[in-house]
Amino acid sequence: MNSPSSKSLINENQKISSWRIFFLSLTTVLLLVLFWNVGNFKQDPFITETLSIQGEALTGSRLFKINCVGCHGISAQGLVGPDLHGATEELSDKKIINQVIRGLTPPMPSFEIEPQSMADLLAYMHSLN
Ligand code: HEC
User: Fold this and answer.
1) Atom of ligand 1 nearest to the CA of 63
2) Which of 43, 53, 99, 127 could pair covalently with 119 via S-S, beta carbons 3.0-4.6 A apart?
3) Residue 6 C-alpha to ligand 1 middle, in angstroms?
4) In the chain, what are the domain boundaries?
5) Average pLDDT value for the chain
């Protein structure tokens, strides 16, 4: 037989364990949010370096003719790959750099490139607008 006092003891224990679960979940969620943000805000050193360099559009256009025209066309008007006029208005520099060095969207390959050359390519693409 349950006396009233033992019943209230059980309820007290249940209360504590649901608070524990609540705080444990809360901590887990907060930690996940924290790690996700740290990963997001940590800028790629290649991108940071590229963005700190003043690119040369003329050199960039030469690099473009060697590496990119096969897919994007001789004047970047688009072929297999899309027209790149206005690409710098639609995409951030960071996104374009990622596009070139990471190969995120096959069939476009990833390019191993110096930050200076990447800055030149960016300057060329900005000059297309
Ligand atoms: C083998 C073919 C190929 C080569 C070589 C190539 N690309 Fe691409 N590129 C593509 C394709 C295909 C896409 C579209 C990918 C997609 O579906 O998002 C693309 C997309 C892009 C985009 C994004 C355009 C947008 O509006 O989303 C940029 C910027 C770009 N390429 C730049 C370059 C540069 C700079 C080079 C040379 C260093 C280069 N690409 C070489 C095929 C190529």
Assistant:
1) 38
2) 53
3) 71
4) 1-42, 45-127
5) 89
CATH architecture of 45-127: Orthogonal Bundle (1.10)
Spell out a b/e string for 63-98, using b for 16 or more CB atoms within 10 Å of the CB, else e: bbeebbbeebbeebeeeebeebeebbeeeebeebbb
pLDDT at 41: 62
Region 90-110: mean pLDDT is: 94
Is 82 strand, coil or helix?
coil
| Ligand 1 site, CB within 6 A | 67-68, 70-72, 80-82, 84, 87, 90, 96, 99-100, 105, 107-109, 111, 121
pTM, whole model, 2 decimals? 0.77
Residue 103, by phi and psi: left (phi above 0), alpha (psi -120 to 50) or beta? left
Residues 107, 44: Cα–Cα separation, whole Å = 23
